[in-house]
């Protein structure tokens, strides 16, 4: 039993170290993170001392060790009270007197135990039982009182807060906390009464302690993403998987050793049986674990897809007023039936008067019919990309600093969600306000993720409608080739966005009126940009629609797009479920920062090519993956690296090497590399010009059928950038 106890506490210490590191290095740390780190640090000290006295019982003869072991739990739970007082984002000044009082209690307790010893001394005998004297009873009472008080600040907040998602989070956390308390009492009582094990020798006590730490970490780590419903399901699923995987294996080994008469080759038989069992059980259990992890999200995404109006319905409108009415009526109304959202209000911008006008909605009547575009409410709502949930108001600021007018706007109109829509020029179209979910439920992380896909797809539909309307207005009765050419001209940029430390240049040759290449760049921060290149194939209108989808997704500027694989994952989901086109698309995405750090993800497109002048060699960055739109559940991988000063990166399309001159000699990778090496000291603009010249000299009189896209970027000293 001692070895099990030591093993469990070592695991607990390892997890504690992980918690300390993760909460210290996370961005936007709050006072609750600091308090939690202190709690975990003290707990890890307690675990270490318990291991020490179990290995060397004579250490209990050192008074300070025994005293520390009994004092730490009281200090931990008193600090836990401070944490629950300040959750989710309270200003410490509001509770400074109460927190000061709690800290004074800790200090008085430490002084009375270690210095004055007025209540006697803490005694732990070599059987690791705490002697029941006055000092021990005072510590036990202080610990018990602290444990009981911990939930009360959260219970009070749950009763009075207007943040529905915060109430749900607190409810689930308190449920887990109470279960942990009950489990602790049960294990402590059973160990003492049935096995005569005091608390310091009970090997199962670490389990409820671990649960308390895990639940508390999940509560405060990321207020925007914590989802106790899914979290508890996953814990239950993994616990069940552990039982199914290892309990039968344990009993098999025990019974095999007891009853088997086979001596020779026994280890091979046992290994084979265990291996087969684990493989079969994993294959049976894994789908259920995946269902717990993503099943709800997939159901919501399926509901979202049922909600959206097919793109072929766009032909039913002949003017923009009809367009907006039709779009909102079909797509927003169905949120009530598919997701159970009880109210929705679409506010469309009137640019002439700079106001957002209520265009369509359902649910209780609003306090307003329009919002001034220059008001604080409008400015705040449109400043947030993606889906904004009301509790996000306190994610990055204290409750005290929340704009009262903004909070009243949400509360008085029963609004829980806001999402912004933009056009192809990154200008605001309008925003959608959503109310609570049927059954007075709060929005979960799966709801927010599904609504983000809904937002992107609606924005995609709106942009597509606008572009098609523009194309129709300009090219009435023209055939598909004109439409494709117009769309390509509309979505392909004239130049790519450089950032300090990274210079970028490119050239594109439009050889086909049936589709072809789409490439673009989007700044995602002042020192970071995303480069994207894709082959939309050569299938006429389908290629044009695919290009517009990619364009609208890339320019949705969602906060999710902080790494290339997330961009490809979103594109993959949208394209796979698109009603616009059934074709798939090859593409790759690179995010590069001013310091040269980059990440690259590939969806069956060409590899990233990097040349380092110092080493005088070319490196192919390979991250092969399937094309976009093939498999809904697929998740793309990415690779990272860092460009040194003077290093050159290249992205290119297939058309670059499909060109042949009159002698059927192609422009080759060797010729490209030769040009890059020869002019490696030049700027990307010069490199692009030289490669273009070499490519042009390889062209013959034959018609070239594929588009040619070439993107070159170079790491330079930031001091050399012209501002």
Tell me the layout of helices and strands.
Layout: H1 2-25, H2 31-55, H3 63-86, H4 96-116, H5 134-149, H6 152-160, H7 164-194, H8 206-221, H9 228-259, H10 266-307, H11 320-333, H12 335-338, E1 344-350, E2 355-362, E3 370-372, H13 376-382, E4 387-389, H14 404-412, E5 417-422, E6 428-434, H15 445-474, H16 480-491, E7 502-509, E8 517-525, E9 528-535, H17 541-554, H18 564-576, E10 586-593, E11 597-603, E12 608-612, E13 617-621, E14 639-642, E15 648-652, H19 669-678, H20 684-697, E16 708-715
Antiparallel strand pairs: 1-2, 1-6, 2-3, 4-5, 5-6, 7-16, 8-9, 9-10, 10-11, 11-14, 12-13, 12-15, 15-16
Helix pairs in contact: 1-2, 1-8, 2-3, 2-8, 3-4, 3-5, 6-7, 7-8, 9-10, 10-15, 15-16, 15-17, 16-17, 17-18, 19-20
């Amino acid at each position: 039993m001692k070895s099990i106890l030591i093993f469990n506490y070592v695991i607990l210490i390892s997890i504690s170290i992980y918690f300390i590191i993760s909460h210290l290095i996370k961005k936007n740390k709050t006072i609750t993170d600091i308090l939690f780190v202190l709690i975990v640090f003290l707990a890890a000290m307690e675990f270490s001392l318990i291991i020490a006295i179990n290995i060397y019982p004579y250490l209990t003869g050192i008074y300070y060790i025994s005293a520390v072991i009994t004092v730490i739990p009281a200090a931990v739970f008193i600090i836990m009270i401070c944490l629950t007082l300040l959750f989710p984002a309270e200003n410490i000044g509001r509770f400074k007197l109460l927190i000061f009082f709690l800290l004074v209690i800790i200090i008085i307790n430490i002084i009375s135990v270690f210095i004055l010893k007025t209540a006697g001394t803490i005694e732990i005998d070599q059987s690791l039982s705490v002697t029941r004297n006055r000092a021990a009873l005072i510590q036990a009472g202080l610990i018990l009182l602290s444990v009981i008080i911990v939930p009360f600040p959260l219970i009070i907040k749950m009763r009075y807060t207007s943040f529905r998602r915060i109430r749900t989070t607190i409810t689930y956390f308190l449920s887990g906390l109470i279960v942990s308390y009950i489990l602790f009492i049960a294990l402590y009582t059973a160990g003492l009464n049935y096995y005569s094990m005091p608390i310091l020798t009970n090997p199962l006590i670490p389990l409820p302690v671990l649960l308390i730490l895990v639940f508390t970490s999940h509560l405060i780590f990321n207020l925007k993403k914590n989802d106790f419903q899914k979290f508890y399901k996953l814990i239950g699923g993994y616990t069940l998987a552990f039982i199914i995987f290892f309990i039968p294996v344990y009993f098999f080994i025990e019974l095999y050793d007891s009853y088997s008469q086979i001596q020779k080759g026994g280890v091979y038989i046992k290994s084979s049986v265990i291996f087969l069992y684990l493989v079969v059980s994993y294959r049976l259990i894994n789908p259920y674990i995946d269902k717990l992890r993503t099943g709800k999200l997939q159901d919501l995404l399926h509901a979202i897809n049922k909600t959206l109006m097919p793109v072929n319905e766009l032909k039913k409108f002949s003017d923009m007023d009809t367009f907006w009415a039709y779009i909102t009526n079909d797509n927003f109304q169905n949120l009530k039936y598919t997701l159970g959202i009880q109210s929705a209000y679409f506010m469309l911008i009137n640019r002439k008067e700079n106001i957002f006008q209520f265009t369509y909605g359902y649910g209780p009547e609003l306090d307003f019919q329009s919002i001034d575009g220059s008001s604080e409410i409008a400015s705040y709502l449109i400043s947030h990309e993606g889906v904004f949930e009301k509790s996000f108001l306190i994610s990055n600021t204290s409750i005290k600093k929340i704009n009262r007018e903004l909070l009243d706007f949400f509360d008085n109109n029963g609004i829980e969600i806001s999402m912004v829509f933009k056009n192809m020029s990154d200008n605001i179209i309008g925003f959608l306000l959503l109310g609570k979910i049927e059954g007075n439920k709060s929005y979960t992380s799966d709801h927010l993720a599904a609504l983000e896909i809904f937002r992107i797809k609606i924005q995609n539909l709106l942009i597509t409608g606008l572009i098609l309307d523009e194309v129709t207005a300009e090219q009435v009765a023209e055939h598909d080739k004109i439409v494709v050419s117009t769309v390509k001209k509309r979505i392909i940029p004239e130049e790519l966005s450089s950032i300090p430390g990274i210079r970028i240049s490119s050239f594109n040759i439009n050889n086909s009126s049936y589709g072809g290449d789409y490439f673009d760049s989007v700044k995602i921060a002042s020192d970071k940009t995303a480069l994207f290149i894709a082959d939309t194939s050569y299938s006429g209108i389908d290629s044009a629609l695919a290009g517009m989808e990619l364009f609208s997704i890339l320019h949705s500027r969602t906060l999710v797009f902080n790494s290339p694989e997330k961009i490809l994952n979103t594109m993959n989901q949208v394209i796979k479920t698109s009603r616009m086109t059934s074709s798939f698309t090859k593409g790759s995405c690179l995010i590069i920062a001013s310091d040269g750090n980059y990440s690259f993800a590939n969806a069956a497109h060409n590899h990233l090519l990097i040349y380092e002048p110092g080493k005088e060699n070319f490196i192919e960055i390979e991250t092969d993956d399937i094309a976009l739109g093939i498999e809904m559940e697929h998740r793309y991988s990415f690779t990272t690296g860092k460009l040194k000063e003077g290093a050159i990166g290249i992205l290119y399309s297939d058309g670059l090497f499909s060109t042949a001159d009159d002698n059927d000699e192609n422009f080759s990778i060797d010729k490209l590399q030769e040009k890059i090496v020869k002019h490696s000291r030049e700027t990307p603009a010069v490199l692009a010009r030289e490669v273009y010249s070499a490519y042009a000299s390889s062209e013959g009189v034959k018609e070239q059928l594929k588009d040619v896209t070439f993107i070159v970027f170079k790491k330079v000293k930031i001091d050399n950038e012209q501002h």
